[in-house]
Amino acid sequence: MKEFLTKVGSPVGLHARPASLFARTAKESGCKVSVAKIAEDGTETPFVDGVSLLKIMALGIKCGESIKVQVEGENEDTAAASLQAIVESTEH
Questions:
Q1: d(CA 40, CA 67)
Q2: What Å distances lie between residue 81 and 1, 29, 46, 85, CA to CA?
Q3: Which end of the chain has fewer surrounding CB within 10 Å, N or C?
Q4: Model confidence at 25, in pLDDT bands (50, 70, 90)?
Q5: Residues 13, 14, 15, 80: which is the catalytic one?
Q6: What secondary structure does DSSP assign to 14-78, as a single string?
């Protein structure tokens, strides 16, 4: 399993377009992807399914907030790199 922490770069947070791109990329990877929001005090939300647009959006992740992503499967390194790039991008 590959796990990484990262900060959201999109000005709109992990909402709408970036969340959709994340969920689609997670699904296409064929890996099991889970996402948790990290609060400023270091507490984590429960992990949600990374292929579910609605569950990702329900976390309410804003620009600059941290998330933890777990990726498990055959192509986990490639999938994790792609997902991390989406989360950190300021282009969405």
A1: 11
A2: 13, 11, 22, 6
A3: N
A4: very high
A5: 15
A6: S-HHHHHHHHHHHHHHTSEEEEEEE-TTS-BPPPEETT-HHHHHHT-PPTT-EEEEEEESTTHHH
15: annotated active-site residue: yes
Q: Round to the nearest angstrom and report the end-to-end CA distance of the chain.
A: 28
**What is the reported pLDDT for 91?**
83
Higher pLDDT, 15 or 22: 22
Averaged over 24-33, what is the pLDDT? Answer: 98
C-alpha–C-alpha distance, residues 69 and 55, integer Å = 14
In order of their start, the domains of the chain are 2-88 (3.30.1340.10)
Q: Is 63 exposed, middle or buried (0-12, 13-18, 19+ CB in 10 A)?
A: middle
